[in-house]
Specification:
Blueprint: E1 4-5, H1 12-27, E2 36-37, E3 43-44, E4 50-58, E5 68-73, E6 87-91, E7 95-97, E8 99-102, E9 115-117, E10 138-139, E11 142-144, E12 150-155, H2 162-168, E13 172-177, H3 182-186, E14 195-203, E15 205-206, E16 211-212, E17 229-232, E18 235-236, E19 238-242, E20 246-253, E21 260-265, E22 278-283, E23 286-287, E24 293-295, E25 298-300, E26 305-311, E27 319-324, E28 350-356, E29 384-393, E30 402-405, E31 417-420, E32 423-431, E33 437-441, E34 446-453, E35 471-474, E36 478-486, H4 498-504, E37 506-510, H5 513-517, E38 520-521, E39 526-527, E40 533-539, E41 557-559, E42 566-573, E43 577-583, E44 588-594, E45 597-604, E46 611-619, E47 622-630
Parallel strand pairs: 2-19, 3-6, 4-8, 6-13, 14-20, 19-28, 29-32, 31-40
Antiparallel strand pairs: 1-3, 4-5, 7-11, 8-10, 9-12, 12-13, 14-17, 15-16, 17-18, 20-26, 21-25, 21-27, 22-23, 22-24, 22-26, 27-28, 29-30, 32-36, 33-35, 33-37, 34-36, 37-40, 38-39, 41-42, 42-45, 43-44, 43-46, 46-47
């Protein structure tokens, strides 16, 4: 197990500074409406060799919500978090290997994945819907860190379970650092002191049961509905102590649905005129392409990360508030005052109190004066152009209308788009619906080239589109064109067998999780069809199917037979393979991806009950089937 650091134990100097600020906070008459200190997730230094998915209880910061059942990453292995997960640190060029264990209740059927959002990694390690594993099972992705210094995040991506599991607390920050990074050397970079993650989420609770409402209606319903709550690092209206110097915030909109307009103010009774200018210097995939931008507000949408620096040097012994100006979000954005199903509770309020101390310690970091430019390859002309339509069918909208992409819903067994390795492509994302959608694509980072109305009329290019991105909010009636390089992890064609799709599929989708996971019928609040997600693969330029063939064992060996809770498969596969378990009538009971292995691997069958089953092993298009009796 790698060493885990509590954020306030980084050094004697930092312990002293935190203590001094805490004493000042207690004696300066701060408002008592912010009474819970904001948790800062534990930091996993360098590599986490084990990451567990655990069921816990958490205090959200109010008496009624002090013992709520949640999910969390790695509480079992010694971290303090019982909601969300530890902050992981990746080093550019290192090999990252993480053993992930699903400790959710046996028999619950609660499969999960861990998706490394924004990472440039092989498809079989990506943690999308194809890399699921059930209770009692594990998954061990291994890859080289190819990303630039940035902030990524991790969260589940299991089919039809993403919304529920993120709502319950499964999410965490990833900090990618690079040895010798000149910007990092200047900017604030001491975790928990002047480099602080802010994970902002919206949650509904059921007041009768003091539980998280995981229904997929996107809004609270029934007699026990409570107002939507905004969380920062898993706490309702917390406070945070900071030194009077530049402080870096890694802001993640980790919400399932909502966007925010964020600003820092000194006077909450007159917030419009008391906003503090602050500095935007990084986006999803790294630093801005030219220079730091001074801003007074920032639009955050689900899945997007932004790096900002707030200079508190002139605000010693003051209270600063992070506020959500929902009235400044545009029409059609979920979370705006104009969005009908949020109008009763727009959450235009203070979400974090920042208590600036009086410590005279010299600042550790400063605001960078310059940033790296766009890589030369990203300024070249595209080899291919594509158009992706965000749609709602049937046209006109009815109670059974569903959001989709190109008028289609997600198909687990279909590759929708094939791109060629080592090419540059321009993608135009057209929003033909009446709602804003954050469009996210796996594997790559892109640069926005232009923003237009659907008829091609140019629109202003706002700061939020700057920098390398993997997630962009596309407004109704508009289109955004981005340029991307597909320069890694190409696979040979074809992509038409289950094993190939499993190991080659990346996703592009709306990051509003009720749109990605599925849509609902407003009339009866039941889940409808799967929604706004499609799959793409990267082709390495070869086309021979024989290139996929690999030696398998002459015959797979399954034992014992009859079997109890565990079944063992003895074989060999140098790529990801699939185990599919069906009953005698052919109904699929369980499907599981197996990482490359040689020898014996276990399959948990405890949740399947008793009786005869068919076990199918699929490796590179080859299939073998055996009957097994469970007793």
């Amino acid at each position: 197990m790698e060493k885990i650091y509590s954020p306030i134990k980084c050094s004697v100097r930092h312990v002293y500074a935190f203590s001094l600020i805490s004493i000042l906070a207690l004696t300066s008459g701060f408002s008592q409406s912010f009474t819970i200190r904001m948790p800062i997730p534990d930091l996993y230094d360098r590599r986490a060799d084990t990451l567990s998915v655990d069921i816990e209880t958490h205090d959200f910061g109010t008496p009624a919500l002090s013992n709520v059942e949640t999910f969390a990453y790695n509480h079992k292995y010694g971290t303090t978090n019982d909601y969300l997960g530890p902050t992981l640190t990746w080093i550019v060029g290192d090999t990252q290997s993480t053993h992930i264990v699903n400790n959710l209740p046996m028999g619950s059927g609660m499969t999960t994945t861990v998706h490394w959002h924004g990472a440039n990694i092989p498809a079989w390690t990506d943690g999308g819907p194809h890399q699921f594993f059930g209770p009692g099972e594990s998954f061990t992705p291994r890859f080289k860190v190819l990303d630039a210094p940035t902030t990524l995040w991790y969260h589940p991506h299991a089919e039809d379970r993403t919304y529920t599991q993120v709502q319950m607390g499964l999410a965490g920050i990833i900090i990618v650092r690079e040895n010798g990074d000149p910007v990092e050397a200047i900017a604030p970079h001491t975790y928990g002191w002047d480099d602080i993650p802010l994970i902002i989420q919206d949650i509904y609770f059921d007041s009768a049961t003091a539980s998280i409402d995981t229904g997929k209606v996107g809004q609270a319903t029934g007699n026990n509905a409570t107002p939507r709550q905004l969380l920062v690092n898993g706490t309702i209206q917390p406070f945070l102590d900071v030194p009077p110097q530049p402080v870096r915030f890694r802001i993640l909109d980790g919400s399932t649905r909502m966007s925010y307009m964020l600003g820092f103010v000194t006077d909450t009774t007159n917030p419009q005129v008391s906003r503090i200018p602050y500095y935007l210097f990084s986006s999803d995939g790294g630093y801005l392409p030219d220079s730091v931008r001074k801003i007074t507000s920032l639009e955050a949408s689900p899945g997007v990360r932004n790096g900002v620096i707030v200079d508190f040097s002139n605000y010693a012994n003051s209270e600063i508030y992070l506020m959500n100006f929902s009235d400044e979000l545009r029409q059609g954005v979920i979370g705006s005052d104009s969005t009908g199903n949020h109008g009763s509770n727009p959450i235009k309020n203070k979400i974090l109190q920042i208590r600036v101390g009086a410590s005279q310690l010299p600042p550790i970091g400063a605001i960078p004066s310059s940033l790296p430019g766009i890589p030369a390859a990203d300024t070249l002309s595209p080899d291919t152009t594509r158009t992706v339509r965000l749609t709602k069918s049937p046209s006109g909208g009815t109670t059974t209308a569903v959001f989709g992409i190109d008028d289609n819903q997600y198909d687990y067994n279909k590759i929708n788009t094939v791109v060629k390795l080592n090419t540059i492509e321009d993608w135009t994302i057209r929003n033909e619906t009446n709602a804003a959608h954050p469009f996210h694509i796996h594997l790559i980072q892109f640069y926005v080239m232009k923003v237009e109305k659907l008829d091609g009329t140019p629109l202003p290019f706002p700061d939020k589109y700057l920098g390398p991105k993997d997630n962009i909010l596309v407004h109704p009636g508009e289109q955004v064109t981005f340029r991307a390089r597909f320069n890694s992890y190409g696979r040979p064609k074809p992509f038409d067998t289950p094993g190939q799709i499993d190991s080659a599929a990346y996703m592009y989708h709306c990051h509003i999780l009720t749109h990605e996971d599925g849509y609902y019928h407003p009339s009866d609040k039941t889940l409808g069809q799967f929604g706004m997600m499609q799959q793409f693969a990267v082709w390495d330029g070869t086309y021979t199917a024989t290139a996929l063939d690999e030696p398998m064992a002459d015959e797979m060996v399954l034992f014992p037979n009859p079997a109890g809770d565990l079944l063992y498969l003895n074989a060999e596969a140098s790529r990801v393979s699939t185990v599919r378990i069906s009953d005698i009538q052919g109904r699929i009971l369980k499907e599981q991806l197996l990482p490359p292995f040689a020898g014996t691997t276990s399959i948990n069958v405890s949740e399947l009950g008793k009786g005869m089953i068919l076990v199918e092993w699929i490796s590179n298009g080859n299939r073998q089937v055996k009957k097994i009796l469970l007793e």
